[in-house]
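User: My collaborator sent over this chain with a note saying "see what the structure looks like." That's all I know about it. Can you take a look?
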Amino acid sequence: MSSTSAPARTPVFSPVAVVASCAGFVLIGALQALYGPAIPAFREEFGLSPSGAGLGLSAHFVGGVAGVLLFDRCFGRIGNRRLLGASYLLMALGAAGFALAPNWPATLAAALLAGLGFGGIDYGLNQLFAVGFGHRSAAMLNILNAHFGIGAILGPALIGAVGAGHYPAVFLGFAPAVLPLLLCLKGVRDRAPQLSGPAPDSSGPPGVLGRSLASVLCVFVALYVLHVGIEAGVGGWEPTHLETVGHGAGVAATATSVYWLMMTVGRFLVAPIALRFSAQTIITVSCAGMTVCLLLASVAELAPYAYAGVGLFIAPVFPTGLPWLHRAAPGARRAGALVIAASMTGGVAAGPALGKAIEWSGIRAVPLLLSGVSAVCLAATLWLVRSTRTH
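Assistant: Without extra context I'll predict from the sequence alone. Here is the result:
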């Protein structure tokens, strides 16, 4: 008995590796956020249309989905250190290639390569944090993903400071920034514990979840796709909506920055709460809160403040849902990869889908459209609470 329980007591991360992982999430958050502010510069450099320039971010996300699936394919077969190290190197090479590429096809290939590493880091660290900290996993995942938000705030600020025309220097700076993180990988346990069998806190019959496992996974995927669609939809359309209902461009830009800031702050705030309340409770309150805030955003005077509330409430959903997923479907090893890949496709699909809906209903309907999606997220969460309840 002691030989089987000993590995579980070995920490998955040393304290230094935890700090390095958070720094890695700052980097991937910054990388994802750099493409948007750099668009004017590489449009001018390569003579691109707006849709052509947008392919850079699309290539990054396509690479991200591929990175998630590739990491998952190798997870458990290849040591965690090698997988994470390869992901960091791919991201560094891709970012450097993006800076130095002589033409647009080469630039897209580099963005795809950077996205491949991005997806591996995103999935790999989320997966390891989800299984590596026991009852503290939800809290640690919120802290980890809050650092992604820090990077997403710092990246555009850096482009703004040096000027969009100097975007190659910023992308090129990623390569040396990654190197210290490679040295810290020795603090990552090479074989993480695997969840298998019935959920650890379940005292009911083992078949309770097994009969509806496919349904549970489908609803988790739907929850992740839809909530990331809301996240991207607010980030993309909030400025336009605020200007349409009478707010100035400065107010709209500031309010959008506050939205992203509140998402980061929300994850830090939820970390201690996650030690006392279940993931089910936190996500239910989050979905209800963001639905109410989106409804309030349809009132012009309240809209800037309501969008900040959306950022605060949506913040815990992604990181808090992963430990819940692992408890609800412990036998489905690929469940984490499925929902993380789904979240990326949700971000890609949100723009065109919401754009088409806005063509039918107008800009003023943005918060109402998103509140409808949020209500579906709440319904999905309540269904999951009922379906994964232990006895």
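A starting point for your reply to your collaborator: Residues 282 and 316 are 8 Å apart (CA to CA).
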